[in-house]
Amino acid sequence: MRDFTADHRWLSINTATVRRQHGRDWPLLEILDACARHGIRAMSPWRDQVAQAGLAATARALKAHGMELSGYCRGGMFTSPNARDDNLRALDEACELQAPCLVLVVGGLPGALAGRPEHKDIAGARHVVHEGIATLLEAARERRLPLAIEPLHPMYAADRACINTLEQALDVCDALDPGRAGAIGVAVDLYHVWWDPKLQAQIERAGRERLLALHVCDWLVPTTDLLEDRGMMGDGVIDIQRVRGWVEAAGFAGYSEVEIFSRRWWSMAGDDVLATCIERHRRCV
Which candidate, 15, 134, 124, places its Cα nearest to that of 67? Predict the structure, then answer.
């Protein structure tokens, strides 16, 4: 396993982690500048932040700072209206920014995210998701941009993602890409999968070809909000180093992407949050 204690060469910042500072939005281009000041060489931006900054301006800023992407957030939501067109736009944006993959949060029951689920058929929703990924995969292959399915914790099954385990995500990958051509894989987000008793076996099953992204944070006890109370690495109960060891033993050698949705950390100065991410990445990841 790689030694992260001496530097933060393999740290990436998912911009959700610092999308706010002192409780107010922090513009993406300013986040880029701050990451560069701290010697952070990779990030994963969210589409809404890119849209506000401008796609061309974001691409120029990334190039000027010599910064790489560890992923692009996000495509998916296949059970929503106009999902196909929106996902094609997401693919094109990811290509423009030279992202290594487009992360997919696949969606849940139609209408549930808005609080108005149209039905209770989660098996039907999973079928729609499967078909949506299959269609998007054709476009992704044309663009040579891999898709990374991110399974979400079961608490999000109704509204955000009806793919909830690494096993489910890999079943989709194997069905659509049996030859492991590298067109589709998974994003392993520890917040969502740390609890899974099959996690080590499924990471081994994924292997180098399927492991496209690793997201790190921690699970707080108690957790006070299901969406916006993720923990900084080392503050919770996830054995982060053990899981990173499994992922690297399976062939992953990319960035550890810090993705923390947290009202607590959003209330602080962004530079302080970045400094803490660096320290915890060295000590806890």
Answer: 15
For residues 64 and 160, give the distance between their C-alpha atoms in angstroms, rounded to a whole number.
35
Cα–Cα distance, 87 to 89 (Å, whole number): 5
Segment 233-251, tens digit of pLDDT: 999 999 999 999 999 999 9
Report if residue 248 sits inside a domain: yes
Whole-angstrom Cα distance, residue 221 to residue 238? 10
Predicted TM-score (pTM) of this structure: 0.98
Strands ordered across the beta sheet of 211-216? 68-69, 42-44, 11-14, 256-258, 211-216, 184-189, 147-149, 102-105, 72-76
Q: Is 75 within 8 Å of 91 (Cβ atoms)?
A: yes
pLDDT at 66: 98
What are the φ/ψ torsions at residue 138 (nearest 5 degrees)? -60, -45
Q: Tell me how many domains the chain contains.
A: 1
Residue 42 lies in a domain: yes
Q: How confident is the model at residue 52 (pLDDT cuts 50, 70, 90)?
A: very high
- 3, part of any domain: no
Taking phi first (over 0 means left), then psi (-120 to 50 degrees means alpha), and beta for anything else, what does residue 45 get? beta
Residue 183's CATH number: 3.20.20.150
- Between 199-210 and 166-176, two packed helices, what is the crossing angle to 10 degrees? 40
Phi-psi region for residue 76, left (φ > 0), alpha (ψ -120 to 50) or beta?
A: left
Report the SS3 class of residue 283: helix
**Range(s) of the domain holding residue 178:** 11-284
